[in-house]
Each structure stands twice: as C-alpha cells, then as structure tokens.
Amino acid sequence: MKRIHAGFLPPMAVDPGSGSPMYQQLSDWFRQAIIGGQLRPGQRVPSTRSLASELKISRIPVLGAYEQLQAEGYLETFEGAGTCVARAIWDDPATAAGARRPRTPPQPTAGDAPRRLSRRAAQMRAPEQTWLGNMGAFRVGLPALDQFPMAIWSKLVGRHARHLPLEAMTYGDPMGHLPLREAIAEYLGTMRAVRCDASQVVVTTGAQQALQICAHVLLDAGDRVWMEEPGYPGAHQALRTAGARMIPVPVDHDGIDVAEGERRGRGARAVYITPSHQFPLGVTMSAARRMQVLDWAARNGAWIIEDDYDSEYRFGGRPLASLQGADTSARVIYLGTFSKVMFPALRLGYMVVPRDLVADFCAARDAMDTFSSTLYQMVMTDFMREGHFARHIRRMRMLYMERRAAAREAIDHCLGDRFEVIGAEAGMQLAGLLPVGVDDVAVSRRAALEGVSVRPLSLCHLQPPVRGGLILGYSGAGVEEIHAAMRKLSRCF
Q1: 479: helix, coil or strand?
Q2: CA distance 328 to 312
C-alpha cells in the first residue's frame, strides 16, 4: 500500500484540566480516528513538533502519545518520510471491522420538522437526461477537444502561473480582466459587427450565468418574456427560476415570428433569441424579422437578449453580423461564450450591455460569484492577442464542415426518410424531425444504452410538439465515429 500524503486532520483538542494525562488524550484521539476510518492506512500524520505547536502544548506529551501508538501498531515511522498510520492496520482483527465501517452521514427521521425548500429549487430540476452520459457522437455542444492546441495553451498557462503578480491573486474586477475585455471588444467589433468598447463588456463564467444575470437585472417575477419555440432549454431554466412567465413564439424559416409574438405576448418585457443560428432548428433570422424585433423593442421599451453561442461556425460564407450591431435604441444585451470555440471547462463567457446598464450588471455579477478566474482570463487574453484564437477558429471551421458532411451522408445512408434534417448550414449540430408518433425521448434513451448521445427535440419545446425530433452534435466526433454511431442510432428507431 502506498503512503498517502498528509490530509486535513479532524478537529482535535486537549483539556489540561482533565484528570487524564495529555499524552493519553492524544493517543485515545488518534486511536479512535484510525478505528473510525477518519485516518486512513498509510496517511502521514503531523510531526511531533508541528502538532505540539498547533495545540500550544509541550512536545513531551505528543512524543509519549506517538510512542504509545507505535508500540500498539497504530502508527509506523518511515525514514525520511515521517510518521504514518500503519499500513497493515486492516489486517488487525481488533480494528478491521471498525476501520472498514463506512461513516454514514446524518439522515432525516420521521419525527423531524418538515424539510421545506423554495419553489425556485423545484424549478431548477430537469428531467433525467441519460443521453448526457456519453462524450462522443453525438453530444451536443462538445467541440473537437482532440484538435485543441493544447501545447500552445499549456505554454501560456505555464507562463502566467510561473510569474503571477500579487494583484492577480487577490479579488478581481467583477466586470472582468480589463485586457481580456479589450480583446473581446476588438474581436466582436471586427468579426461580429458588435458596436461596443471594453467598458461595456462583462466577463462571466459562461452563457448560462449571463442568462441568469439578465433575468435578475431585467425582469421581475411574473414578467412576460417571448421565447423561441422550440428554443434553448438553458434559457428556459434561467428565466423560469427568476419567476418570468415565458410566452412560446413559433420559429419558421425566417426565425422568430414577431407578429405572432405581439398577438400572444402583449406587454412582454423581453425576448430571448438566437438570430445568427437558431437553437435548435439552425435557421437564420432574416433581415426583415431583425428589423421587426428591433422596432418592437424600441416601441415597447422591451429588452432583446441576443445569444450568439456558435456564430463563428457558418459554412455558407462569412459569419452574419450581430443583431446588436443594427440596434439604434440600445435595447440589445449581447451574449457570447468561449465554451464552444475553446473548451467547456474553461468557464469563460461574456456580455455586452448598453452603457446605462453597466453599473446594474456589474453589481449583479459581483453578487453572483464576484469574478472569474484571473489566471485563465490572462491566458485567454494572450491566446487572442497572439493570433492563436483566430487560427483555431479557422481550423475548426474547416474540420466541422468535413464532419457535417459526414453526418449528412451517414443520415442519408442509415436513416433515410426516417429523419428529416432541418437547418444544417451552420453551427456544431444539426436537428431533424422524426415520423409522427415516434417518441424522441425513448429513442434518445435507447441510443444512450448503445453509447450514442442524441438530445430529444421535444425537450426544447414549452408546449408539446406535433412531431418529435433529435439534435445531433457532430463537432466532437471523427468521421469514422460518426458513421459507426449512426449505424447504432438506426437500430434505436
């Protein structure tokens, strides 16, 4: 058995006024901690000098306790490694049962008072999603992690970690690391036609936190919000937990139907949209619809939450300009994320907010979790400024074009007319409709048993859809894996 590095010791105290000698109190405490499993075989214990200093007592009783425990076989000493819990402690019949007994956490009993939770807690729960347990084909939102420039990223992380200034180790600006905000503003202005400067950029831990901040700053409980139908479930969750009343507005080939939204949701305070690449259908909002929704917001004093989650990956030409860039009334809050173009565990996203709302959004960001990791913000700044970010996007755009073509070919070969593809000209996933009567949740669960992750389209609806469907993410799987997974999926219908 290997030696285990010293961990945190459970709370320990000695009572000088007790009738029991201090060395005896210490040896009793260690003995019970070892038998109870709180100290593990092979785990290092503090030196006699450091333990005496911590307890503010003489070193003599600590030496006496350690000698007693070593004599009884509870502790052993290794040359150059200090004192550890005896590795063979479980072989001792007197202690084996106690040492192996798991420590059970406290459980409520029948006589306890009711364990009340908030209504908000129930709103946060999502149905069991077995299809999220697989990381290959066709996990939605998963980039090509095997193609990420890890050597470059690791070099940048090491550079900053080795020379991290003291100010970077303290509490950071809730708005985010200023150089990163400047790099984001420059990137958005060039690539997405977003009109902003660094003072309007708020760095978040991702698009989901940005949605939560928007919901808490812009809306009161009961306020009406237009939602794309079908739409992004994460937005449903963020707005639902804020107490908003979501109004489903149908999406057609031109995007959200603004006229239908005005009929269904009079007096709405906001609209959530994904105009560049609608999630999950993949359609692009037409210029006419963009002007309609901007006009509606200006006339009604409403807010537009524009989620631009993967607009970098458009295959029919250059990425479309953002809706925010056409806004003349400062009604658009623009959201973006690095999870899709970098990797999800980075936990960095951003918002661009109108100037008059900066103080309110900054306060909300501070209230949520203060600030994002300064180290990773510094690394991301260099990744962008040194050109690695732009090169990575260009490489991934070509790779995803290849994988999208492979997915379309595999669908035609394996699924045929059982899967009607819609909106496949952009992004990292495609959606399709199943025949009437086919349960998309059941298909997704069967696919998960085959090791294939597909998301049911019906879970993106606020109202029961006429037809179910599936969302297939192709970006995180190679061409051969795509074809193999599609054959497995065909057996799940």
Answers
A1: helix
A2: 24
When pLDDT is averaged across residues 107-121 and rounded to a whole number, the result is 79
Both tokens assigned to 50: 């450091």
Query: Which pLDDT belongs to residue 90?
Result: 61
* pLDDT above 90 coverage of the chain, percent: 70
Which of these, 248, 246, 200, 176, lies nearest to 356 by C-alpha position?
Answer: 200
CATH topology assigned to domain 163-390: Aspartate Aminotransferase; domain 2 (3.40.640)
What is the Cα 289 distance to its own chain's centre? 31
**Cα(170)–Cα(173) distance, rounded to whole angstroms?**
10
> Does residue 174 contact residue 205 with C-beta atoms inside 8 Å?
no
Q: Which residue in 57, 34, 32 sits closest to 45, CA to CA?
A: 34
Strand duo 469-473 + 455-456: pairing: antiparallel
Count Cα neighbours of 455 within 13 Å in the Cβ-side half-sphere.
25
Kindly report the CATH class assigned to 130-142+393-490: alpha beta
CATH of the domain spanning 22-100: 1.10.10.10
Q: How far apart are CA 24 and CA 308, in angstroms?
A: 66
User: Average of pLDDT values for 231-239?
Assistant: 94
Which pLDDT score, from 0 to 100, does residue 100 have?
47
User: What residues are paired with 421 via a beta bridge?
Assistant: 432
Q: Provide the pLDDT for residue 27.
A: 92
Contacts of 162 (CB under 8 A, 6+ apart): none
**How many whole angstroms from its chain centre is CA 115?**
29
Name the DSSP letter for residue 174: T
